[in-house]
Amino acid sequence: MTLNGWAQIALILGLVAATAIPLGRYTAAVAAGRVTFLAPLERLFYAAGAVDPARGMGWRAYTLAMLASNLAGFLLLYAILRLQGVLPLNPEGMSGQSAWLAFNTAVSFATNTNWQAYSGESGLSYLSQMAGLTVQNFLSASTGIALALALSRAFAAGGVKDLGNYWADFVRITLYLLLPLALILGLSLVAGGVPQSLSPYVQATTLEGGSQTIPLGPAAFQVAIKQLGTNGGGFFGVNSAHPFENPTPWTNLLQSWAILAIPFALARTFGHIVRDIRQGWALFAVMMGFVAAGVGLVYAAEAGGNPLHIAAGVDPAMGNMEGKEVRFGTALSALWAVATTGASNGSVNAMLDSFTPLGGMVPLFLIQLGEVLPGGVGSGLYGMLVFVLLAVFIAGLMVGRTPEYLGKKVQAKEVKLAMLAVLVLPIFILGFTAVAAVLPVATASVQDAGPHGLSEILYAYTSGAGNNGSAFGGLIADTPWFNVTIGLAMLFGRYAVIVPVMAIAGSIAAKPKLAASAGTFPTHGPLFVGLLAGVILILGGLQFVPALALGPIAEHFVLAAGKTF
Amino acid sequence: MTAILRPAIAIIALFTLLLGLAVPLAFTGLAGVLFPTEAGGSLVEREGRVVGSALLGQNFASSRYFHPRPSATSEPDPENEGTTRVAPYNAAASAASQLGPTSGALLEAVTERVAMLGGGPVPADAVTASGSGLDPHISPESAARQVRRVAQTRGLPEARVAQLVAQHTEGRQFGVLGEPRVNVLRVNLALDALR
């Protein structure tokens, strides 16, 4: 570890914190319908859909509209992927994806996961990337943010009947928040070297007389939204490790910021919506605390290097460089790994499969904690609020009072629904991993022997169910078994959490808002921040510790003992 | 039912036209006007022929050139359908080794590479494959270890080659971002230009 490494990490996290304030306020204004600079375009959407943006929706109507929009997006993307061979904008003559792979890919992008069982430059046409994936990168992000807004409104006042209009939220977030940011970031990335071209691939003759095929494509715009929307799906196979997708430390800074900017800003937006900025800061503090601690752990592990390689004659100065790029080194790779797994982004600028055991365990654990630190755009905030309800419930049990959050009583119904949402991850992660670990059709896909092989399977289902999308890439994921089971994990990890969360929103919204009294447990101070962090660790993380002990922790001790597989 | 499906279909279709076609096409046009080189892949030409991209590494095996990092990319094997063969710096299929920290195959490869470079301690980047398989850079330490070989093969004074490496060493951006590095294609082009 170097001072310069820490300076880079502090600089980027500081930028995220600084921009969260204006961005959070702006998002609250968009949510309230106060931003209107594209009003004619916005009205076009309402006219086409025959919707009245001013008409409020209860939780059921809001959820149904969301599900319908996601289903339409999924079906359209599936069709494009299957038919790309006969559709235009396909200069490299890519053929259509197989049914299993197209199912997996369409679910992946509709659920904001962006798990990729294919490689972009060798398998997708320009049309699939632009009209298929780029669109879903926007819309799955808007979906998440809309849901978080709906849940936030439930806490804002007493006896609220409706949670807002889904279509209005969905259209406004896309047009006023995501699109302008993507255009600005996209142009900055082009300036930094990310291609944006519809030309065919270029054949180069290398200095030694060999030939090299240089892939191109409309990459910059898609890369911009993939980071801003915490999607993470790479334009090229190796994602943001690819020198075209992330050419310099400067583009790396822009992208690292973009990954964290909106999820952290939404904590602030929450403060605006409930008219108590301090409440937003408390959530922000928990999120930032975990991110900072995670970066410290990963940076220490990666900068320490691989002891076996050091013994074989590798200079330890640069740390563990397998799977890492020289321009980023261990500090920026560590920050990226934590940012993308804390934030449900799932893009990579270094290969997690080749991280040291503990360096790879932190990203894995961050996803398992529920993708709330700070989590995906919107999904992080609503996931965090689920933990908040559990935290006030536990605090209420300790002092024997009816728990309240922001003046709303938290009762049996909400706590049951919250537990339902929290249990989705362990069921699908541990359940599928357990089955896959003993099924020959699944273990045939595993690259590494020993505990690392288990980590590869565990990571795949963790990433799917957590809607993250990153991978321990040694696993051969494009098989019917993994395409289908990871596809299911992604679907349930998204919608089986959303439905109970929206039911909570409906239930909370209807309750009266009680005034704070001397007996109210304050939910903005350091005591609550500590309590919430503890609840996330215990209720979110404890059930995964046995699996981690068999995977990365076992591997750590095996490595220390000098054994290889 | 139509009350739910009508807006879903209409709004998704409209967003696909806007975000999937109109905006990306306009953006591509704008990017091509404002930053033609970068938008087109930062291609490098010599005597009118494209020799590569400044951002992508390429394979160098001759002792006349600085060598890049090991690369884990492969290509389809024409003699054996359905399988792949080793093809370092194949930019048509970016890839990493994905080997884990306790992989015996990785330790073997690293040990072999250390031996080929004349024994340790060697800079880590010189014996490990990058995440992309297309890393255009090597560390200044890795470049320094290659100066003597390149100078001898080309019959140049070592100091001249070392000077060239120093000229092509990029520092941290704004003094803080990233790690110091040498672009292998650029330094090799400069070597060829010395003649």
UniProtKB/TrEMBL annotation, chain A:
<keyword id="KW-0406">Ion transport</keyword>
<feature type="transmembrane region" description="Helical">
    <location>
        <begin position="138"/>
        <end position="158"/>
    </location>
</feature>
<feature type="transmembrane region" description="Helical">
    <location>
        <begin position="420"/>
        <end position="442"/>
    </location>
</feature>
<feature type="transmembrane region" description="Helical">
    <location>
        <begin position="281"/>
        <end position="301"/>
    </location>
</feature>
<dbReference type="InterPro" id="IPR004623">
    <property type="entry name" value="KdpA"/>
</dbReference>
<comment type="subunit">
    <text>The system is composed of three essential subunits: KdpA, KdpB and KdpC.</text>
</comment>
<feature type="transmembrane region" description="Helical">
    <location>
        <begin position="481"/>
        <end position="506"/>
    </location>
</feature>
<feature type="transmembrane region" description="Helical">
    <location>
        <begin position="170"/>
        <end position="191"/>
    </location>
</feature>
<protein>
    <recommendedName>
        <fullName>Potassium-transporting ATPase potassium-binding subunit</fullName>
    </recommendedName>
</protein>
<comment type="similarity">
    <text>Belongs to the KdpA family.</text>
</comment>
<feature type="transmembrane region" description="Helical">
    <location>
        <begin position="61"/>
        <end position="81"/>
    </location>
</feature>
<keyword id="KW-0472">Membrane</keyword>
<keyword id="KW-0633">Potassium transport</keyword>
<feature type="transmembrane region" description="Helical">
    <location>
        <begin position="381"/>
        <end position="399"/>
    </location>
</feature>
<keyword id="KW-1003">Cell membrane</keyword>
<keyword id="KW-0812">Transmembrane</keyword>
<feature type="transmembrane region" description="Helical">
    <location>
        <begin position="6"/>
        <end position="24"/>
    </location>
</feature>
<keyword id="KW-1133">Transmembrane helix</keyword>
<comment type="function">
    <text>Part of the high-affinity ATP-driven potassium transport (or Kdp) system, which catalyzes the hydrolysis of ATP coupled with the electrogenic transport of potassium into the cytoplasm. This subunit binds the extracellular potassium ions and delivers the ions to the membrane domain of KdpB through an intramembrane tunnel.</text>
</comment>
<feature type="transmembrane region" description="Helical">
    <location>
        <begin position="527"/>
        <end position="549"/>
    </location>
</feature>
<keyword id="KW-0813">Transport</keyword>
<dbReference type="Pfam" id="PF03814">
    <property type="entry name" value="KdpA"/>
</dbReference>
Automatic annotation (TrEMBL), chain B:
<keyword id="KW-0067">ATP-binding</keyword>
<keyword id="KW-0406">Ion transport</keyword>
<dbReference type="InterPro" id="IPR003820">
    <property type="entry name" value="KdpC"/>
</dbReference>
<keyword id="KW-0630">Potassium</keyword>
<keyword id="KW-0813">Transport</keyword>
<keyword id="KW-1133">Transmembrane helix</keyword>
<protein>
    <recommendedName>
        <fullName>Potassium-transporting ATPase KdpC subunit</fullName>
    </recommendedName>
</protein>
<keyword id="KW-0633">Potassium transport</keyword>
<comment type="function">
    <text>Part of the high-affinity ATP-driven potassium transport (or Kdp) system, which catalyzes the hydrolysis of ATP coupled with the electrogenic transport of potassium into the cytoplasm. This subunit acts as a catalytic chaperone that increases the ATP-binding affinity of the ATP-hydrolyzing subunit KdpB by the formation of a transient KdpB/KdpC/ATP ternary complex.</text>
</comment>
<comment type="subunit">
    <text>The system is composed of three essential subunits: KdpA, KdpB and KdpC.</text>
</comment>
<keyword id="KW-0547">Nucleotide-binding</keyword>
<dbReference type="Pfam" id="PF02669">
    <property type="entry name" value="KdpC"/>
</dbReference>
<keyword id="KW-0812">Transmembrane</keyword>
<keyword id="KW-1003">Cell membrane</keyword>
<comment type="similarity">
    <text>Belongs to the KdpC family.</text>
</comment>
<keyword id="KW-0472">Membrane</keyword>
